[in-house]
TrEMBL record, chain A:
<keyword id="KW-0472">Membrane</keyword>
<keyword id="KW-1133">Transmembrane helix</keyword>
<feature type="transmembrane region" description="Helical">
    <location>
        <begin position="12"/>
        <end position="36"/>
    </location>
</feature>
<keyword id="KW-0812">Transmembrane</keyword>
<protein>
    <submittedName>
        <fullName>Membrane protein</fullName>
    </submittedName>
</protein>
Amino acid sequence: MYGWIWRHLPGNAWVRALISIVLVLAVVYVLFQYVFPWAEPLLPFNDVTVDGQ
Amino acid sequence: MRLVVRALSELCITAGALVVLFVAYLLYWTGVQADSASAAQIDTLQRAWADAPLVTAPARVPAPYVTGKGIAVMYVPRLGRDWKWPVLEGTGPDILKQGLGHYGRTAVLGGTGNFAVAGHRRTHGDPFKDFPLLRPGDAVVLTDGTTWFTYRIDRGPYRTVPSDTAVVDPVPRKSGFRGPGRYLTLTTCDPEWGSSHRLIVWAHLDATRPVTDGRPQALDS
């Protein structure tokens, strides 16, 4: 998978490395901003109230 | 064969990186966000208080609480000299990300009944991380901009199950309080990283003083 991405990036090795870093940062951003906040309530750390449920 | 092994190892590496990132998010990033969100909430409250004309406490009619908006700032000296968190109206997940949450159906601050507040034990700034250290006699100090309310803990930490809503009743069951009064209840989860139980402490209103008279002694002792 990673090899496939690397082969399909344009430019020489330096340009590819740069694009890879940008891609990684973008993935981390999406995870922190959207995916993790969504996944967090599925874990038990958020239940601090007495609610009869 | 080689292709399968490669795909599988890449999958494992990806999954491992995901888990590490998620732990970093929980342990670190939610704390960073909670610190800035709670500081902003306290800021908003203090600016609103500074703008409001100073009226002596009994004369002021308290504004009804609005869900998601700050209502007070809480100080608990036992949890740290710098321990200070905003109390917001409501106990939804989005509210508890920014500070402590006041159970909507319970009494107003300083009022007759039970002013019940929930907070995270872990993640989102760990406000109630040291909850088990609370002891009878400890002060829980709150201010709503006009009055300092000093509550004293009577009972706790008491361990119960999540469905035990009687702990936030006006006269909480098991608290030892017998008649109606001005009470305060704090709730958080137990064990530290779990949700099978809840930890509770109960307190009663010990003293009030107008903010114009300065900080209560309990904060500096």
